[in-house]
Amino acid sequence: MISVIQRVSQARVLVGGEVTGEIATGLLVLLCAERGDSEAQADKLLAKILKLRIFSDQTGKMNLSVQDVAGGLLVVSQFTLAADVSGGNRPSFTGAAAPDEGRPLYDYFVTRARALHPIVETGQFAADMQVQLVNDGPVTIPVRIEPAAAS
C-alpha cells in the first residue's frame, strides 16, 4: 500500500460541493491500494501512521504522533499514487488495485482507523473530490508498505 501523509492545521474534502470529511490539526492521509495488497499491509500502514512522530513538541522537535496531539485523520483514496511514468508522458495506473479490490481495502483501513483513533473522517472512494488543506510545516511524507516476502 502507498500513502502520502501531510501534516495539516486543517483539511476537508468536498464531493459535489458537499463536505464529506473535515479535520482541524492532524494528518491528511492519501491512500492507494496496489494490486495484491492485503489487510495485513493496511494494518502495518495504519500502525505506522498513528505512531509517526511528525508533530512538534514544546521544544520544536518533531517528536509527537497524531495520537499524542489528539489530532484527526482525514483518509482520502487516491489511486494515482500508483502512477508509473517510466514509459512516457502519460502515466500508467496498472499497479493500482482495481476498484473491486481497492474499495474493500480502503473500507478496511478506515474501519480499523476508527477502531484505533477517535477522530477519523473520509473522502468518498472513487469520487471526483476536491481536497482543501493547509499543510503545516510543510510536512509531507510518503509511506509505502511492501507485501511480506513469501517463505
What's the gist of this structure?
By secondary structure, the chain is an alpha/beta fold.
Give structural notes.
This protein is α/β, with parallel strands linked by helices and 151 residues long. It has a single domain, classed as D-tyrosyl-trna(Tyr) Deacylase, Chain: A (3-Layer(bba) Sandwich), CATH 3.50.80. Helix content is 21%, strand content 38%. The chain is built from two helices and eight strands; from the N terminus they run E-E-E-H-E-E-E-H-E-E. A hairpin with a 2-residue loop joins strand 1 (2-15) and strand 2. The longest helix is centred in the last third of the chain and has 18 residues, at 99-116. The two termini are 20 Å apart.
Label this structure with key terms.
151 residues, alpha/beta, D-tyrosyl-trna(Tyr) Deacylase, Chain: A, two-stranded antiparallel ribbon, 2 helices
